[in-house]
Design goal:
Elements lengths: L8 H27 L18 H49 L15 H50 L5 H30 L5 E4 H18 L3 E6 L3 E4 L1 H17 L7 E9 L2 E8 L34 H11 L3 E6 L5 E8 L3
Parallel strand pairs: 2-4
Antiparallel strand pairs: 1-3, 4-5, 5-7, 6-7
Amino acid sequence: MPRRPGLSARLKLTLSYAGFLAVAGALLLAVVWMFLLRYVPDNSQGLLGIAPNRYLLVRTFAPAAAVAMVFLLVFGLVGGWILAGRMLAPLTRITAAARMAGTGSLSHRIRMEGRQDEFRELADVFDGMLEELESHVDEQRRFAANASHELRTPLAISRTLLDVARKDPTRDRTEVIERLHVVNTRAIDLTEALLLLSRSDRGNVTRESVDLSLVAEEAAETLLPLAEQRGITLDVTGGATRTSGSAELLLRMMTNLVQNAVVHNLPAGGTVTVHTEERGDASVVRVENTGHPLPPDLVPTLTEPFQRGTARVRTDEHAGVGLGLAIVDSIVRAHDGTLDLDPRPAGGLLVTVRLPGGA
């Protein structure tokens, strides 16, 4: 919305300084008049017959007072202009940085020198905001590039299968259809995961009271056939653990955690334990599984989209799309919670989710 031009902040401060100085000078002259000249006798003999009278003092004092007032006004304007410029110099740097950020440049920083004051605090906050924005934009760009790559792969495979089937009419169509079905299913799963991740990132969460223990039991019941197929023992322990959030998203969070724990486990004889409990004002979910030891530098990357890690990539039908823990992390953040990943010394992973408690 366009606005009419007005006085600059520097000019306003200058006029304020000059006006304050002029008022102070006028008050000083008024004090001199009231407490000095008013007690001088107004007669031809003056004070005790040796001092000048009020008339002579006024004629002598008035021109000097006028000159002093003009000097104070000019000094106030010049000094106020210089002082206001020095005071507003940090604001000029902040404005220039904000204007550069408005053009899309987020890599610059103000880095205000000097001791801490209001302007430097504002500059530090602005630098922190730029850093967060740059990190978020880079993450979004990286996510978009990875998503495009992941979506391109099944589409390219589908086109290749169709080209081969068209060029070789004698090829078994059942095999082609089955492979197309697998590839198409993977593309659909990836698209749904991206939509869910986008929804949870926006924070549009419908709040209702949810018992995490019941959610854990439902997720475990759904994935029990997969666990039995792999020879994994799946246990759910703990009591009622209530929180406030979306039942659908929390079920997806729990399902992803349990499925991740089952898939990335020992070839046989492994265990998965899901425990829910209330700790003070927090509702806690712990998902612990056995498995191969994880490198310490791999664990922090597990919640990044499409970062499966070479030590955890599966080659079977449950290879996934690299969004399982990324979706979990996004859902937890949308519910104002925290997600902690800790590698177990004996192998496997301990995942701890802390959500605000609910009545």
